[in-house]
Amino acid sequence: MASKTASRKKKQPVRRSKEKGTAGAEVKKFDVHFFHAWCKQCGLCMAFCPRKIIQADQNGLPVITDADRCTGCRFCEAHCPDFAISVDDRVPRRRKTDE
Ligand code: SF4
Ligand code: SF4
User: Which atom of ligand 1 has the smallest separation from the CA of 48?
Assistant: First the structure.
């Protein structure tokens, strides 16, 4: 009987996330894609981005300045009137030539 109780109290293995940040939290990365052909350069995405990582290029079109700082909040995507933005989970590249 005693051995049965002992086996029930066995420790479960601790699950660990694949990638950890400095505080131990899981760090997720995102990629932001702009479809410039649909963009009318209204500037809403630049205004709404809480990280201020969207800026206008020399033609006034939005570009990401530091993709690693994107939190994936999707404010830019949600406020674009022309559906010209797509925010996606970053998938690890398998080859240097992968886009
Ligand atoms: S998802 Fe959020 S943090 Fe990332 S670019 Fe868009 S508004 Fe900025
Ligand atoms: S919110 Fe959409 S249409 Fe406006 S500048 Fe950004 S990508 Fe272009």
Answer: 7
Measured from the Cα of 40, ligand 2's closest atom is: 3
- Please state whether the predicted TM-score (pTM) of the whole model is above 0.90: no
For residue 65, pLDDT beyond 80 = yes
The pLDDT value recorded for residue 96 is: 73
* Across 59-86, average pLDDT: 97
Nearest residue to 62 via CA among 82, 88, 89, 44: 44
CATH number of 26-61+72-91: 3.30.70.20
Which residues contact ligand 2 via a Cβ below 6 A? Answer: 34, 39-45, 62, 80-82, 84-85
- 3-state SS of the chain: helix, strand, coil percent to 5? 20, 20, 60
